[in-house]
Amino acid sequence: MKRFARLFTSLDQTTRTTAKVDALAAYFSEAPAADRLWTIALLSGRRPRRAVTTTRLREWAAERAGLPLWLFEECYPVVGDLAETIALVLPPAASASKATLAERMAEIRALATVDEPERKARILNAWDSLDGTERFLFNKLITGGFRVGVSQKLMTRALAQATGQDEAELAHRLMGDWRPETTSYHALIEAPDPAADLSRPYPFYLAYQLEDGPEGLGAPEDWLAEHKWDGIRGQLIVRGAEHFVWSRGEELMTDRFPELAAARDFLPPGTVLDGEILAWAGDRPLAFNALQKRLGRKSVPRKLLEEAPVVLKAYDLLEEGGADTRALPFAERRARLEALLADLPAGLPLRLSPLIAFDTWDSLAETRAASRGLGAEGVMLKRRASPYLAGRKKGDWWKWKVDPLSVDAVMVYAQAGHGRRANLYTDFTFAVWDGAALVPFTKAYSGLTDAEFRQITAWVRKNTLQRFGPVRQVTPQHVFEIAFEGIQESSRHKSGLALRFPRMARWRHDKPAAEANTLDDLRLLLQRYG
Amino acid sequence: MTDRARAAQVATRTGPVGADIMANRAVRGAADIARGAGPARHYSWLMARDPLLSVTEKGIYCPEGDFFIDPWAPVPRALITHGHADHARPGHAAYLATRAAAPVMRHRLGEIALDTVGYGEARTIGGVTVSFHPAGHVPGSAQIRVERGGEVWVVSGDYKTVPDGLSEPFEPVKCHAFVSECTFGLPVFKWADQAEVMGEVNRWWAGNRAAGRFTLLGAYALGKAQRLLSGLDPGIGPILTHGAVEATNAVMRAQGIALPETVQVTPEIDLKAHAGALVLAPPSALAGPWARRFRPASTGFASGWMALRGVRRRRAADRGFVLSDHADWAGLNAAIAATGAEKVLVTHGYTSVFRRWLESRGYDATIVETEFEGESLEAGEGAA
Question: Range with the lowest mean pLDDT among A162-166, A273-277, B11-15, B45-49?
């Protein structure tokens, strides 16, 4: 575990990409295979489940540190991270553990199988043999919250550097439903690519946001455009007699969308489609929260299937007849996709995402402006000649979203952030006027600069009216423009509304609280766009 | 209204002595909450006689000596614990500080009417006796002891209990009432040994030099910078300084404090001749254009706040070194215990939590609102 802690420290201590890759590559070259496997698993988000409740951990940590629980609880929001708070308050370790990462992970997995007194004894024992970073990491691992500032892409690059293997091939190997408990480093990284692994998806190609207009992209005839749908990205694989549905977060979601099983009957084996999964009714998508209900459940009751049926709007073809087509130009892949889906029966939950005809950027701009009326959130631009790349790459794929909706709202509550934002007030609740009363309607966390967060933090400290645990009610004085992508009815919120992707577009220093928007203004937006 | 009259009025308003403890608790709790909402500046310490010290709009005030300690608004007579900007402010008619604090105060405040005393030397002012005792915070820093007929109060200013090799080491002073900071008054703050931290700094510097990088180290210009200097290994390479740091170096060297050789960064400096140098500057300078000439470079900060990973990451520095001129949790608790005081008044830091902790340990603990800032998280602020 010491070696892993050193790796974590070097990754944590630098903001330079090359330094991170070098540190990882050095680790992959020298760590034992079992540790390498666990490191790959942890850095690709394959964390062990939480082995113990955080309530128990707090109690045990306070007890071990000889502190009253209330004092421990006061420390937590200041530190902003439970694992770190525990690591900091505990007394120094009495002994030093020599356990490797893999051995430590085995112990952590075993925690779930023992009763609570035994679990407590083992955790106290571990705390007493770990210091500093190791103790912090152990806590992160038992609370299931392990994260480090390294993308899977960087990790893959480092692995390629250490092993001399091709980066793209490694990225493909690391996709899918493998678990460190059931495979080995050799099987995952070195063994001949098991063609048997029918379920393995391709890494998704992600678009960049187009900030200015498309004029800088060159001639319109070099580009194809589609609507940008507000669903979840999905990859549909039909291989052998089976089918698989993967989310962009590499989660296998086959069972969540039983409708898509029909693909097995209509697509030839060796087909992989990339598209958007949407809850759909008639000629337009349902609101995102209809889809969200489906995402929340592993098995779907019949009633929900009827209320929120899903379709896959396909927009790319990654594999045809068992052959990888990603290197072909997009126009060619698109033509093959159209041919493949041409003769499907109309009722099938498998549709082509239609192309938008346009010959000038101006005409495309008009289509984009009308997106919201179609239930889309803008348009996608893809270069005709572009291959299907892995990850977020600039140049060939762009999302050109409609301008967000926005309202001016008054900040009424503030809460300190966590992790990097501990000690800063960054999580705010906003309200609009309903007559003479302010009705809270959304929270927002992002959109301000660090300097603005510092400024508002100093103000919150001086203008707190009441405290509710970590939440402070503040003088209703500051107005912020809240931008959002959609608005829906919601019975869970006091305002009766829920926003999609709310964030702070800017701090309206120029506007007094009395001039913020009203609940009626929001209801009007709901009527028009909900 | 004179400050004396105001203090007396406050004392009256605060109510009878020996009031029910539970009632006091409730009042304090309410005051905690009210602090955010409105002005609640007036506090007095509930003592059998008129309190020896109380807080007015201008600062900590002693009615019987008619002087203030570290006031934040201009007053006729100010006793100053140390030269940091939130404790030694301009505009007072007369100043009293230790001899060792005087050079820095003159440097920062210019022409002031400054009288000095040695550590432990007693002075009578009005009806009270005052003396200054080492606080271990920065060179020249002091706790101020105020005595009236056997009743002793100590205002500790900023302090740390571990010796840093540069400041006069902290001396516990027995008292009845102790006015304490609690900048790092939470049990998550535990300082490592200074030698260990300086070892980390030196290894980082040596590594940077070997890799052909400059080492940019951010630290407050008065105190922290010199403490770092005295722990750096000049054998590794040249040490460059920002003008603000160098000015304080010059003042301290002139009063006989030994510091390693430094070269001030000027527009004409030949950086090739100083490749691999360590550059010591205030944090604000590292964030601005001044620092851009040093490339490539690795950046680090030295502060007690670097104990928290979130703070380290928010600064986006390569390294954060946990080094503070304030007492950590254990230091605060040990210092308070060593005074033998029953009454503790906490001035700045995690005051409401620390007050509650002290109360649970049997102290009569109160929060007093001051304008002291403790160790600032942000670049460019005056306190340290």
Answer: B11-15
Q: What is the pLDDT of residue B40?
A: 31
Task: Kindly state whether A466 is in contact with chain B, defined as any CB-CB distance less than 8 angstroms.
Answer: yes
Q: Which domain holds residue A7?
A: 2-142
Cross-chain Cβ contact A75/B188 below 8 Å: yes
- Domain contains A180: no
User: Above 50 in pLDDT, residue B221?
Assistant: yes
ipTM associated with this complex: 0.84
Nearest Cα of chain B lies from the Cα of A27 at a distance, in angstroms, of: 19
Q: Domain check: are A366 and A452 in the same one?
A: no
Q: How many domains does chain A have?
A: 3
| Predicted local confidence at residue B49, as pLDDT | 63
A419/B310 CB distance under 8 A: yes
Which residues does chain A have with pLDDT short of 70? Answer: 193-197, 250, 298, 418-423, 469
Mean pLDDT of chain B: 86
CATH number of residue A525's parent domain: 2.40.50.140
Q: Do A361 and A411 fall into the same domain?
A: no
Q: What is the pLDDT of residue B19?
A: 31
Give the 3-state DSSP-derived string for chain B, with helices as H, strands as E and coil as C: CCHHHHHHHHHHHCCCCCCCHHHHHHHHHHHHHHHHHCCCCCEECCCCCCCCCEECCCCEEECCCCEEECCCCCCCEEECCCCCCCCCCCCCCEEEEECCCHHHHHHHHCCCCEEEECCCCCEEECCEEEEEEECCCCCCCEEEEEEECCEEEEECCCCCCCCCCCCCCCCCCCCCEEEEEECCCCCCCCCCCHHHHHHHHHHHHHHHHHCCCEEEEECCCCCHHHHHHHHCCCCCCCEEECHHHHHHHHHHHHCCCCCCCCEECCCCCCHHHHCCCEEEECHHHHHCHHHHHCCCEEEEEECHHHHCHHHHHHCCCCEEECCCCCCCHHHHHHHHHHHCCCEEEEEEECHHHHHHHHHHCCCEEEECCCCCCCCCCCCCCCCC
Looking at the complex, does the CB of residue B295 fall below 8 Å from at least one CB of chain A? no
- Quick one: which H or E segment has residue A310? strand A310-320
% of chain B residues with pLDDT over 70: 85
